[in-house]
Hints:
Residues 132-328 form the Reverse transcriptase domain. InterPro entries: DNA/RNA_pol_sf (IPR043502), Hepadnavirus_pol/RT (IPR052055), Rev_trsase/Diguanyl_cyclase (IPR043128), RT_dom (IPR000477). Residues 1-23 are annotated as: Disordered. The structure is a single chain. This protein is of the alpha+beta class. It has four domains: 103-185 and 220-240, HIV Type 1 Reverse Transcriptase, Chain A, domain 1; 189-217 and 248-334, Reverse transcriptase/Diguanylate cyclase domain (Alpha-Beta Plaits, 2-Layer Sandwich); 338-426, no CATH class; 429-594, Ribonuclease H-like superfamily/Ribonuclease H (Nucleotidyltransferase, domain 5), CATH 3.30.420.10. Helix content is 36%, strand content 17%. It is built from 19 helices and 23 strands. The protein has a four-stranded antiparallel beta sheet. Strands 12-13-14-17 form a four-stranded antiparallel beta sheet, with no helix packed on it. It has a three-stranded antiparallel beta sheet with strand order 2-8-7, with helices on one face. Helix 16 (517-532) packs across helix 19.
Amino acid sequence: MKGSPVQPTVNTHTSAQHVSNPILNSNVGEAKTTNMATKPPHPNLVYLKQSTRNNPPQPLPTPIKYDRLAFYLLGYDQNKVQYLLNGFKHGFNLEFEGKRGSQFSPNLKSALDKKEIVTGKIIKELTAGRIAGPFSEPPFPSMKISPLGIVPKKTPNDFRMIHHLSFPNKKEGSVNAGISDASAFVQYAGINDAISCIKDIGDNAFCCKTDIRSAFRILPVSPNDYELLGFYWEDKYYFDKCLPMGCRTSCKIFEEFSTAIEWIARNKLGITHVVHILDDFLFIENSKSVALEKFKLFLHMCADIGIPLASDKTVLPTQVIEFVGITIDVNHRETRLPQDKIEKCKRLLTLYQQTNRCSVKDMQSLIGVLNFACSVIMPGRAFLRRLIQLTLQVSENQEFITISKECKDDMALWLVFLDNHNGKTMFLDEKFISSHALHLYTDAAQSKGFAGIYKTQYFFGSFPEHWKEINIMTLEFYPILLSVVIWGKLWANHSILFFTDNEALVSVINKQTSRDSLVMLMVRFMVLHCLNHNIVFRAKHIPGKNNVLADSLSRLQVTEFRRLAPNAQKYPTCIPDNLKPENFWRTLQTLQSQL
């Protein structure tokens, strides 16, 4: 049964069906000042400077109840507690280290083309107290005015207003240019963390979820940074008072808050299986009733603290749920990409395969969509590298990039991923099984032949004369690839760690790339077969590994092999004709031409 959005049953932002206890509305209360320590314990903790003006401090725009948050955070990391409480009381510092000076940038064409939409959004933010204005003159002596723009949302005729804090460019002049990479660095959980929780619980797992409404906008900015967040609209000046989506540090600051909320859920509410990705929270329990009971606790905690939740994105316990845009199906033990994302990927890939150049912005858009798809189609990540590298090599003012043949080959492989698997992947066993535990061994002898052994099954053969000029790394890759083709169906939905004494081969298998065009044919062929069986294949270097069985077979010493392995099957496993050495390269080149 698919989960459905919860309709509000009481007059509140955080209601859900069957929630019996009252859920409180959150009101903005005045922030009270306390004595601050002389040395900040948190690396990002910056205390409010004494104002040179005689104006009394104004209440900060946040629904969060300081005292209730402090109560729930008892026992949490003290540095992080102080950082959060200081932020909600005095505003969060944006960690801007650049030059503070006056700057004026005109609004983007997207905003000017839809003035009524922008005006409506400004009025909404003014009403909520999250921006200040209008002012006839700049309210600060040194004020950065960054442009406004709008971008369409997924819902038709719905738009998001953006404050372009990277304008005029990322290297100088903009607000984001004054924020270091270290200050903006943040790590999130992923969809695999959610799947791991589901696998821990098993087939009885039920999932529910909710989403913090207006997430960044419930965190106030330090008044010291108001002068960085100015904008100009219809002859009036304004400035933002809450975390803007366009600021480099907004994600990191909000993640500090949402991580603390997850800690409360785990340690104060006893919700052990919870995963959050920024403002999305997913809960997994072993029965529908337990999931609902724990979910109620979380909803009431949020109401008590004043955290607004999106009722239209709140879903009660179910076994099929969409989380951060990906469908998780407990019944079928699979994850699925939404159909609209699949179609968008195909459309863009087909378009750029047929052209030799595109804009940097368009390539970045393609990379963004494919990166999202990698959450389900994990082998695709290796075939994003070249596309990403294209965008990293451009100069500051460069608008267009040339699409290389290698990039088009990677796009072709992506289309195969999407066509053959329709954006679906079974749950993967992420615990790696070593090739030793599988009793999987391969070897290649440059002057003789090749061999592969899996338990009691085996194959072997001799190399044609012209193969003996090929480098040993490529020769050793060949029986590994044959093993995946012949026995891969027996390893479906597993992660395999292959031991080899060839360091170059380890790099090729793990990075799934090579400068050698023939090796890349092998890599693509192997990736497709791993995808067919949902296998993650990795290699590890083991110096001087003991490999006597495969060693004897690769040297065509069949009698010695039978002496060492008396339980081996009487006859070897057949190698498909199209993959025998004399046909191998022709087969791979034909496959490449068909992509």
